[in-house]
Write a structure and sequence with these properties.
Strand order of the largest sheet: 1-7-8-4-10-12-14-16-22-18-21-20
Shape: globular
Radius of gyration: 21 Å
Oligomer: single chain
Distance between the termini: 42 Å
Number of helices: 1
Order of helices and strands: EEHEEEEEEEEEEEEEEEEEEEEE
Number of strands: 23
Largest sheet: 12 strands, mixed
Structural class: mainly beta
Helix content: under 10%
Length: 274
């Protein structure tokens, strides 16, 4: 069962004197709060703007979406909430480009839906939407934006973070799944018992990963122009220094599960969690 609604405007943070300069300097805030069951997800999907998540003090998820930019463009952007059996998805909805026809077989090409990315065929709009999220313990957090940073600090649940242009910082007592295209990655995790494969990737940026002392994994590191430094002893199984790029495979502890780290231009640091 899925329900869709829009967040209510609760505040206009700045109203300046009349004139073009005032039009360019106003902010608007939207708020949503609700209860999400442990194991379910709160997902934030942005386009232009940062996402910042911290641990909630209680059992309610709290979301503030702050829209800022040119006042004349505010009407083109709205915040949409989708509730389904797995949790809640909150999206910054931007207009599609002119001439883009909506699909007849679904609600439209740029809809707020759980998982995946927004439709990237959106119209240029001088509006950014920053999200602040309070995430209760046990509620999974997903943060996706196209242009902006994603930060999830001190969470007590699984974290998935994605951006195209921006940095990602995650610290959680659980595990994290993180990737960016242009930016650095820093992830501190409180568990090292994932199943299957765990991958971290960026095209341009450094990657710093922190794990508990009991880390045991088969590790694979690829970089076009970067080095690897590890607090954990690694038994190197293969190392190749090609004309362009390098590739290292090795084992930490007893091995078993797979850890893949890829960066086109950047270094890797494997650290013991504090």
């Amino acid at each position: 069962m899925k329900t869709v609604s829009e967040l209510t405007l609760v505040a206009v943070a700045a109203v300046l004197t009349a004139g073009p300069s005032a039009v360019a300097a106003q902010d608007e805030d939207f708020e949503w709060s609700g209860t999400i069951a442990r194991g379910d997800v709160i997902e934030i999907k942005g386009v232009s703007g940062n996402i910042w998540a911290t641990l909630a003090s209680g059992s309610r998820v709290e979301v503030v979406a702050r829209m800022h930019g040119r006042r004349r463009d505010f009407d083109d952007v709205h915040i949409e909430v989708v509730e389904d059996d797995d949790g809640v998805t909150i999206c910054a909805m931007y207009p599609i480009r002119r001439g883009r026809r909506r699909h007849n077989s679904r609600r439209g090409p740029n809809e707020c839906e759980p998982g995946g990315w927004h439709d990237l065929n959106i119209r240029n709009t001088d509006v950014e939407v920053d999200f602040e999220v309070r995430v209760p313990a046990g509620v999974r957090f997903v943060g996706r934006t196209i242009s902006g940073n994603v930060e999830a600090e001190g969470l007590d649940s699984h974290v998935l973070a994605r951006t195209v242009s921006g940095d990602i910082y995650v610290s959680t007592s659980d595990l994290a799944d993180v990737s960016t295209v242009s930016g650095s990655i820093e992830a501190e995790m409180g568990r090292a018992d994932w199943r299957g494969d765990l991958e971290f990737a960026t095209v341009s940026g450094d990657i710093t990963l922190s794990f508990p002392d009991n880390l045991a994994t088969e590790v694979e590191f690829e970089s076009l122009s970067g080095d690897m430094d590890s607090d954990f002893p690694i038994s190197i199984r293969s190392r190749s220094n090609r004309w362009i790029g390098g590739h290292i495979r090795g084992t930490i502890g007893d091995g078993g599960r797979s850890l893949s780290i890829k960066t086109l231009s950047g270094d890797l640091w494997l650290r013991r969690a504090r």
